Amino acid sequence: MSAGLFVTLEGGDGAGKTTQARMLEDWLVASGRTVVRTREPGGTDVGVLIRDIVLHHRGDIAPRAEALLYAADRAHHVASIVRPALERGDVVVQDRYLDSSVAYQGAGRVLDGDEVRQLSLWATGGLLPDLTVLLDLDPARARARLDADDKPFDRLESERDDFHARVREAFLALAAAEPERFLVLDAARAPEELGADIRARVSALLA
Ligand code: TYD
After folding, report:
1. How far is the CA of 207 from the centre of ligand 1 (A)?
2. Domains of the chain
C-alpha cells in the first residue's frame, strides 16, 4: 500500500484531460497537498525521447514495437517519478496511463488488449491507479476541438475516424470492467462542472 494517491486521466485526444489535470492540481495545492503532475508518454528525460519516436516517427512502427515503446516509457516513469512520489505521500495527477495502451494499442491496433495490459503491469510492477477519470467524448466532437486548436496532428491523432471510435469503445469497456477504479464523465459538459465531480471523488479518497 502506498501512502499517496494515484489519479490518472484518460480519454481520446481533445477530451480536455490537460485542463482537468491543471484544475485538479490547483485545487489540491490550495488544499495543502503536494502534487506531482505528469504524463505519459514523456514524463521523464528518457520518456521525452521515446515520445518523439512514438508520436513523430515518419515511417511505420510494428504494433508490438509500438506497444513496447509505450511500456518502456511507462516502466521508467513509474520507477523514477511515480512510485517515489507515492511513497513520499504525494498525490500524482497523471495524463494517460496503462488504459491508454490497452485502448490505443489493444483495440485501436491489432494487438490483444489483455496482453497489452499484462505487458504494462509487468513494466510497472503491477501499479494500478487509485482513481481513473475517463473523459468520454464523441470522436467527431473531439476532432472539432483539435481542429480549432490548430496544432499539427501527431501519428495517432491523424488516424481515421473508425480508429478513434474503437478507442472510445475500448475505454468504456475498461471502465465497465473496473467500476470502482473509474469515474466516467461526459466530456461535453462544462469544464467547471467536470472539475467539481472530479474533486468530489478525490476528496472522498483522501478523507
Ligand atoms: P497525449 O500526450 O495525450 O497527446 P497530446 O499532448 O498531443 O494531447 O498522447 C499522445 C498520444 O499517445 C495519444 O494520441 C495517445 C497515445 N498513447 C498511446 O497510444 N498509448 C499509450 O500508452 C499512451 C500513454 C498514449
Report:
1. 31
2. 5-206 (3.40.50.300)
Q: How far is the CA of 177 from the centre of ligand 1 (A)?
A: 22
Residue owning the nearest CA to atom 20 of ligand 1: 101
Of 31, 28, 48, nearest to 39 (Cα)?
A: 48
Query: Among residues 94, 100, 45, 91, which one has the least CA distance to residue 71?
Result: 100
Pocket of ligand 1 (CB under 6 A): 13, 39-41, 55, 70, 95-96, 100-101, 104-105, 154, 156-157
Q: State pTM to two decimals.
A: 0.94
Sheet strands (E) in 31-120:
35-39, 91-95
Residue 94 C-alpha to ligand 1 middle, in angstroms? 12
Ligand 1 centroid – CA 65 distance (Å): 16
Residue 92 DSSP SS3: strand
Q: Whose CA is nearest to atom 3 of ligand 1?
A: 13
Contact indicator for 82, 127 with CB cutoff of 8 Å: yes
List per-residue pLDDT tens for the chain, 207 residues long: 458 999 999 999 889 999 999 999 999 999 999 999 999 999 999 999 999 999 999 999 999 999 999 999 999 999 999 999 999 999 999 999 999 999 999 876 689 999 999 999 999 999 999 999 999 999 988 888 888 887 777 766 666 778 899 999 999 999 999 999 999 999 999 999 999 999 999 999 999
